């Protein structure tokens, strides 16, 4: 069984938005460009929230079951990493949204109250957002390492489940 086209497109849209968010977040943090990166980051973050909600809803309504050819440990590791990615992405958007709400002029559709966002609790959300980027990066690196393992070491068709064209390898 293969993921649906909608799930595959949503996966790659998630990747694209995350790349924009990483680059704009870094540009803002390290002053790589003069203006605009924070606005791009906030807009991309809101798009990411929508994509993540669609992705999770679709996944819950249309679960995918694969006849695994992998060891039990590989299957367990894949489940843990994917669950970790979902939980981290959820926490990342929540903490980022609260943190962005504390800005003078947030570019958010419905910011939370600035009093909360600028409180000690809001500061905790900001710190969590900065910390979660490393957790998300670590999970992403593990995910990419597994993709490369399947592609070049195992030379199996696992990666073809997330492409629009099934390839026999």
Write a structural description.
With 169 residues, this protein is mostly helical. The chain has helices at residues 5-29, 37-61, 72-101, 114-117, 120-154. It is built from 5 helices and no strands. Helix 2 crosses helix 3 and helix 3 (72-101) packs antiparallel against helix 5. The protein is elongated and about 50 Å long. The relative contact order is 0.11.
Give a short summary of the structure:
The protein has helices spanning 5-29, 37-61, 72-101, 114-117, 120-154. With 169 residues, the chain is an all-alpha fold. It is elongated, with a radius of gyration of 18 Å.
Order of helices and strands: HHHHH
**Beta fraction of the residues?**
under 5%
Mean pLDDT rating: 86
Which class best fits the helix and strand makeup?
Answer: mainly alpha
Radius of gyration: 18 Å
Q: What about the largest sheet?
A: none
Total number of helices = 5
Low-confidence stretches: none
SS elements, strand count: 0
The end-to-end distance, rounded to whole angstroms, is: 16 Å
Molecular shape: elongated
Helix content: over 70%
List the helices and strands and how they pair.
Blueprint: H1 5-29, H2 37-61, H3 72-101, H4 114-117, H5 120-154
Helix pairs in contact: 1-2, 2-3, 3-5
Keywords, separated by commas or semicolons:
mainly alpha, 169 residues, 0% strand, elongated
